[in-house]
Specification:
The complex is a heterodimer of chains A (291) and B (237).
Chain A (H helix, E strand, L loop, with lengths): L1 H29 L6 H19 L3 H28 L4 H24 L15 E4 L2 E4 H23 L1 H11 L1 H6 L4 H26 L7 H16 L4 H21 L7 H12 L13
Antiparallel strand pairs in A: 1-2
Helix pairs in contact in A: 1-5, 1-8, 1-9, 1-10, 2-3, 2-4, 2-8, 2-9, 3-8, 5-6, 5-8, 6-8, 9-10, 9-11
Chain B lengths: L3 E12 L2 E12 L3 E5 L6 H9 L4 E8 L2 E2 L5 H7 L1 E4 L10 H8 L5 H14 L1 H5 L10 H14 L4 E5 L7 H12 L8 E6 L10 E6 L2 E7 H6 L1 H7 L4
Parallel strand pairs in B: 3-8, 3-9, 6-7, 7-8
Antiparallel strand pairs in B: 1-2, 1-4, 4-5, 9-10
Helix pairs in contact in B: 3-6
Classes of the chains: A mainly alpha (291), B alpha/beta (237).
């Protein structure tokens, strides 16, 4: 039971790392809080659901298409919303209000279009039968989703640490003012990060019917709160810390569901409060030398 | 007299409704080092940021190598060779190597590598610690990295905002010594905004900025003889 919980926790942790990564990337680069993050994830999930039920297209193919679509949506959405926010006196506070409004609009439109009942895609579309890992058996859909999450996280790592644009993105994350002074085109870098952030949410959305069991238009709020818990564990603005935060969260969730199942839903809130009280910089926050 | 590199005429700018600069006139020639003396709140940073396009100019003009650049974005000015070293000067979360690499962002890849190798020869401590985070450096070392990062961009005009800020007198001398190595380099001019007169050691000319207006404009010798400057910056009565 212990080994099963640990391994399942790592699989779910990789997934939760991906869920939260986009939110943390956007916060890190733009210092705005995208409260509609979970709703973009929900849209990604419905995209996969519709394409699967109407056209019988495997969600793994939809996933690739959604990456392109959401990056392309992200660019104009960034230029429409974010520069206006940043020109205001209190961009962080206003971003909470604006993206909360956007979240409500997305949820309402999704409810109108899809209804409020739960939808799901059979896990067998990702492969038949259970799969064995270290003498423990898991649904293939979990293992495939965990592997895709790992690939997506790896792709974002390569973007951040192995490309020139990624290097400039990290510079903007580190010191926006200094980045501007150095001549970095901060708006372009931010637009790319915004597109990648919501594309990451869409990828997690495609996998959500398999990891969450089902999708509903109202799932966005819960996902956003879970994402906050994960990024607070891993440190705000630190994308790689998010992955570690996701694994810690996933393992904790699985242990809670195994040994204290009735308390499992409280986990994101408990972790949020505990980390903020004990180590507000997150477990992977870095200190700077002052002299 | 060498060719004029930078010509600022009638420059006015500020923040929101608050006007900070009032008709600033400033000229700098190729290979020249100019120190802009000003106390806290005199408008030095505002002037430098306006030169870089980080703050919009309200009125007046900025010409660089004869080209009107008053309304160009910052990246276009950096591409033309105007490089700004802010008080912070570095990205503390990034490695020393990343900082220098970002400094070379507008250079061709092969030239960038050569440039960074050359800078490690000038600043060997940075070379030894290239993989470490800039934030792990001491204040003085961080300032050296800031200078190196700015030089990595291969500037024609290096604009420095209070390079002595937060440094002990010993480190200030070290920074001045490093900059002295570039003094009168044929393709590098320096505009240093300061309130520390130690930088006059490497200056060709001096401006003073007071309340957003240029006060004094002359040689270092003339500045040292000027009563108002002696009182304000040398602490002499």
């Amino acid at each position: 039971m212990l080994e099963y919980s640990l391994l399942a926790g790592i699989l779910f942790g990789l997934y939760f790392g991906l869920v939260a990564l986009g939110l943390n990337l956007i916060f890190g680069v733009m210092k705005i809080v995208n409260l509609a993050h979970g709703d973009f994830l929900m849209l990604g999930g419905y995209g996969a659901y519709i394409v699967f039920t109407d056209f019988h297209v495997n969600p793994l193919i939809t996933l690739l298409v959604e990456i392109v679509i959401f990056v392309l949506i992200g660019f104009p959405l960034y230029y429409l919303l974010v520069p206006r926010l940043q020109a205001s006196r209190d961009p962080e506070m206003l971003s909470l209000i604006l993206f909360f409004g956007l979240s409500q609009v997305i949820e309402a439109l999704a409810t109108l279009r899809f209804g409020s009942s739960e939808r799901s895609i059979p896990g067998t579309v990702l492969g038949d039968g259970p799969i064995s890992l270290f003498q423990q058996t898991f649904p293939v859909a979990w293992v495939v989703s965990g592997a895709i999450s790992l690939l997506a996280v790896g792709a974002i790592y390569i973007y951040l640490y192995r490309t020139r644009i990624g290097q400039l993105t990290r510079a903007v994350m580190a010191q926006r003012e200094e980045a501007l002074s150095t001549g970095i085109d901060v708006q372009r870098i931010s637009a790319i990060a915004f597109g990648i952030g919501i594309a990451g949410a869409a990828v997690a959305g495609v996998l959500s019917p398999f990891m969450m069991g089902s999708i509903t238009p109202s799932m966005g709020v819960g996902i956003t709160i879970t994402s906050f818990a994960v990024i607070v564990i891993g440190s705000l603005g630190n994308p790689l810390g998010t992955v570690a935060g996701g694994i810690i969260y996933g393992v904790a969730l699985m242990f809670m569901q195994t040994y204290f199942s009735s308390w499992a839903n409280l986990l994101p809130y408990l972790l949020l409060i505990a980390i903020l009280l004990v180590k507000p910089t997150g477990l992977f926050g870095r200190r700077m030398r002052n002299a | 007299m060498t060719d004029e590199l930078l010509a600022v005429e009638g420059l006015e700018s500020g923040y929101g409704q608050l006007q900070v600069l009032w008709g600033v006139e400033l000229h700098l020639h190729e290979g020249e080092t100019v120190v802009l003396l000003g106390s806290n709140g005199a408008g030095k940073t505002t002037l430098l940021k306006t030169l870089l396009g980080l703050i919009c100019a309200w009125h007046g003009s900025i010409r660089f190598k004869g080209e009107e650049i008053t309304h160009l974005p910052t990246d276009a000015r950096v591409r033309r060779g105007i490089v700004y070293m802010s008080e912070m000067g570095v990205f503390p979360d990034l490695s020393i190597e990343d900082n220098l690499d970002i400094g070379t962002q507008f250079l061709p890849r092969h030239e960038a590598k050569e440039r960074i190798t050359g800078l490690y020869e000038i600043f060997p401590d940075l070379g030894h610690r290239r993989r470490e985070a800039a934030g792990s450096l001491s204040g003085g070392q961080r300032k050296m990295l800031g200078v190196a990062k700015a030089l990595a961009a291969k500037p024609h005009l290096l604009v420095m905002d209070e390079p002595s800020a937060g440094l002990s007198p010993l480190f200030v001398k070290e920074v001045v010594q490093v900059l002295a190595g570039f003094h009168r380099a044929p393709d590098l001019s320096l505009l240093i905004a300061e309130q520390n007169v130690t930088f006059l050691e490497i200056a060709d000319r001096v401006y003073t900025l007071d309340g957003g207006r240029i006060g004094f404009n002359g040689s270092v010798g003339e500045a040292r003889e000027n009563d108002a400057i002696r009182r304000a910056y040398f602490g002499l009565k």
